[in-house]
Specification:
The protein is an alpha+beta fold. Helices cover 37% and strands 22% of the residues. The chain is globular, with a radius of gyration of 19 Å. 20% of the residues are buried.
């Protein structure tokens, strides 16, 4: 899997996941129809002019990119199969009341019944950007293993060059995850390894029979 386009951020992940969640109740070929006000409320954002512009900018980034998937047809063969498309195919709007967003069916299939981990959406909406990134990452681990601070720096795609500053912000993000109930505890040991203990470790399970993306 490879990605080409502007670097995405946590706003983009929030919007894309929310659209996937809404799309489960609508025929994918018809596009996701939603009022911008409703989408903003579901995201936990404000509903002022700046918030609408923020939402449109996010959709623009999700549309102006290419996600390429490549895989071998059969193990051990050189024959390759692939697909390339945007996270959002197209976007139409009438004022703030009627927005219609088309998702690529081939990409939506990546969120089929056995292909993803459910996130706790209520927890995520309470978090700031770095904590959201860590929340998504650790949700894929039933029993998270220790990782060096410099490894989390890479995972978070942090542009902070001074590690002492990153370490300070990392501590604050981990504290956020404790406050929302996702983590029981965390520590950075003398070897600069971050160790976390998840609450409800069995919650990162496959989707239920409805195929819901988030709960």
């Amino acid at each position: 899997m490879s990605y080409t386009g502007e670097e995405l951020r946590q706003d983009d992940e929030d919007v894309f996941l929310q659209l996937i969640h809404i799309a489960r109740l609508q025929p994918i070929s018809h596009g996701v129809e939603v009022a911008a006000h409703h989408l903003l409320k579901e995201l936990g954002w404000g509903t002022g002019k700046a918030d609408y512009l923020r939402l449109k900018a996010t959709i623009d980034r999700l549309k102006a990119n290419a996600l390429k998937l490549r895989f071998n047809v059969q193990a051990g063969q050189d024959k390759e199969k692939g697909y390339a498309g945007s996270l959002i195919r197209k976007f139409e709007w009438e004022g703030k009341e009627r927005w219609r967003i088309w998702l690529e069916p081939e990409i939506v299939r990546l969120f089929s019944d056995t292909e993803f981990t459910k996130l706790d959406w209520a927890q995520r909406k309470k978090l700031k950007a770095m904590a959201k990134k860590l929340h998504s990452f650790y949700f894929t681990h039933r029993e998270p293993f220790g990782l060096y601070v410099k490894t989390l720096h890479q995972i978070c795609s942090s542009r902070i060059k001074v590690m002492a500053k990153f370490r300070y912000l990392l501590r604050r993000a981990l504290d956020e995850l404790v406050r929302v109930g996702f983590l029981i505890s965390w520590e950075i040991d003398p070897g600069d390894v971050v160790r976390v203990l998840r609450a409800g470790k069995t919650s990162a399970t496959l989707p239920d029979s409805t195929g819901r993306l988030v709960t």
